[in-house]
Amino acid sequence: MHFSRFATVFLLLFLTLSCGEAPQSPEWALVIHGGAGVISRDQLAESRQEYVDGLRSALATGQRILAAGGTSLDAVESVLAAMEDNPLFNAGKGAVYNWDGGHELDASIMNGADHACGAVAGVTTVKNPIRLARLVMERSRHVLFGADGAEAFADAMEMDRVDPTYFDTERRRESWENFREDQEKHGTVGCVALDVSGNLAAGTSTGGLTGKRFGRVGDSPIIGAGTWADNRTCAVSGTGVGEEFIRHGVAQRIADLMEYAGLGVTEAAEKVVHGILQEGDGGVIVLDAKGNAAMVYNTNGMFRGRASSDGLLEVLIWDEVEE
Ligand code: ASP
User: Fold this and answer.
1) Residue 311 C-alpha to ligand 1 middle, in angstroms?
2) Averaged over 191-217, what is the pLDDT?
3) What is the pLDDT of residue 179?
4) Which of 123, 153, 259, 289 is spaced 20 to 30 A from 27 at the CA atom?
5) By the 8 A CB rule, do 116 and 137 touch?
6) Cα end-to-end span (Å), the chain
């Protein structure tokens, strides 16, 4: 009798301890997005595999860096530069057309360890705006350079430059020509990463919205709106209607909900994406310093994927994992 009571207490104690134990955190983790919006299964039938491959190869770039002990900042910069070079995404090479038929590119990056950040808006000849944003962060005492000032800073940094026509692509030209009817808004790229030292970083790069007015700047280069990183809470990158992300301070608000309301990544992201933004506005990727990730959107799909040191590797567009 006495023994069985002892055994029960022991068993309960064991169960409490083993169930209460937090799951092992991954050493490193990486989440990416390639834009959210109306992603029609029919329209994507032919190019679905290309998007899946593009997302997989971007994840592989980050994976290599993080698994070798590289920093989350290096991973974010390299992943986004690779996505900028891929014409499928609305960033770098595949940037959309503005109202006047030109391209104006925006990007930002942020370090979760110390709130260091850098951004550029409205660049027209910089091949990889995310790399310029990183240099703004590390080689200037400022946070955000716009248009001519950003180009002048790119001169000073001897960045890789291209003729503005480099950003012309047939697919984006067609959607510009049809843009009043065109519901497609996807393509911006974003990345959040956690490295083996426990540091978070976030970055976002975009060509903005098709048909945007000259000089319009969206949320992607605005720290706190489209991008945020703080080791104490999370790293965030958003995609969607930039004006709404700015109005609601989306990225920082998610971190605030974690910091001040004690929410986890998923709850915080869902509260903002489903409770504050409107249906169709876009989505976010979020990662905390324990490697917990959320990929939440209120559009019909979001190009996205994640990988971590515990072997997880997946790419999704709609609800199901892509093969
Ligand atoms: N958020 C971007 C912007 O408004 C566009 C997008 O994510 O598709 O510039």
Assistant:
1) 31
2) 97
3) 72
4) 259
5) yes
6) 56
Predicted pLDDT of residue 175? 82
Tokens of residue 133, six digits: 């944003």
Structure-token pair, residue 285: 């990727």
pLDDT for 20 equals 47
- Cβ atoms of 192 and 294 within 8 Å: the answer is no
> What is the whole-number distance in angstroms between the Cα of residue 90 and the centre of ligand 1?
9
Arithmetic mean of pLDDT, 309-314: 97
CA-closest residue to ligand 1 atom 7: 239
In angstroms, rounded to a whole number, what is the distance separating the alpha carbons of residues 316 and 52?
Answer: 8
Domains in the chain and their CATH numbers? 23-316 (3.60.20.30)
Beta carbon of 175 within 6 Å of any ligand 1 atom: no
**Contact 159/127 with Cβ under 8 angstroms?**
yes
Rounded to an integer, the average pLDDT of 121-144 is 98
The 10s digit of each residue's pLDDT in 15-50 is 555 544 446 899 999 999 999 998 999 989 999 999
Cβ count near 65 (within 10 Å):
23
Distance 209 CA to ligand 1 centre (A): 6
Q: Where does the pLDDT of residue 5 fall: very low under 50, low under 70, confident under 90, or very high at 90 and above? A: low
